[in-house]
Task: inverse folding
């Protein structure tokens, strides 16, 4: 499975906007975050009804709901109008949740206003030059920045599907890299230098969660249609790619595949005293 490569700024800005065009598919196809990750995130950030949370890139609200259920007041900044509308609809029962349609990179975040700033599968789409400082500035001293990264299809070892599906990428994805090898847990980073900022934060903490999932062909084909590397393929070729994957699962895997997805939860606590942010 492919993770977003390190795209150029232009490519990053184009690809991060692509989710909004498939907002409805995104809403049904993306699986929930693992319970253990949610439990650790809530425990570590000590959320309760007095907490103030900023979520960046909430999409249709996959992580937003469990955060809102704590009773915390929550501002969610979402770039895509369709995704923001879906999040508003999904969270209409939570009067303390406000979805703001905006580009976080240009949004004027209130300074020192949040106990938790969180981004789920969204941080890597933000401007790498300013995202860490912008989040730190929005936090109260002692507040937490939590980043969830999703590593689709990454487990202890790559399964046969991960290798066989390369046929579909090779045939239909013009950006196919023939040297690509499916990643495993040992390829994942265990350091995140951008968070190693003693001027702003205490040392970062990483927790990792792997979840084995069974996807029927239709479910998996829905999921791949929400990946930004697939969304950049021209629509006719993309449809052919999805057909190829569906056929592969039906003919070679009996209609369903099992794969492991891995999630990283990075948490850093803002120092109580430190350099002032200008
Ligand atoms: C992969 S989706 C993750 C959505 C959601 N957090 C989830 O876990 O399902 C990335 C999200 O970040 C949003 N996004 C990307 N860049 C953004 C930015 N600069 N400001 C606000 N939202 C952004 C996208 O529109 C999309 O909803």
Result:
């Amino acid at each position: 499975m492919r993770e977003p490569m390190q795209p150029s700024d232009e490519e990053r800005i184009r690809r991060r906007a692509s989710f909004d065009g498939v907002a409805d598919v995104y809403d049904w196809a993306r699986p929930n975050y693992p319970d253990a990750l949610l439990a650790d995130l809530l425990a570590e950030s000590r959320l309760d009804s007095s907490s103030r949370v900023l979520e960046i890139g909430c999409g249709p609200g996959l992580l937003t709901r469990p955060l809102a259920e704590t009773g915390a007041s929550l501002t969610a900044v979402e770039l895509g109008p369709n995704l923001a509308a879906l999040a508003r609809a999904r969270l209409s029962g939570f009067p303390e949740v406000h979805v703001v349609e905006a580009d976080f990179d240009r949004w004027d975040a209130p300074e020192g206003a949040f106990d938790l700033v969180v981004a789920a599968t969204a941080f890597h789409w933000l401007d790498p030059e300013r995202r860490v400082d912008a989040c730190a500035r929005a936090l109260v001293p002692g507040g937490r920045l939590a980043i969830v990264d999703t590593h689709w299809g990454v487990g202890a070892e790559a399964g046969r599907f991960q290798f066989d599906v390369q046929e579909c990428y090779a045939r239909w994805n013009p950006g196919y890299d023939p040297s690509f090898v499916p990643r495993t847990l040992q390829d994942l980073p265990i350091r995140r230098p951008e968070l190693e900022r003693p001027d702003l934060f205490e040392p970062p903490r990483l927790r990792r969660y792997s979840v084995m999932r069974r996807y029927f062909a239709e479910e998996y084909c829905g999921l791949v249609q929400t990946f930004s590397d697939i969304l950049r393929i021209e629509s006719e070729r993309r449809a052919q790619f999805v057909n190829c994957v569906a056929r592969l699962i039906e003919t070679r895997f009996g209609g369903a595949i099992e794969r492991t997805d891995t999630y990283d939860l990075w948490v850093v606590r803002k120092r109580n005293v430190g350099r002032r942010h200008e």
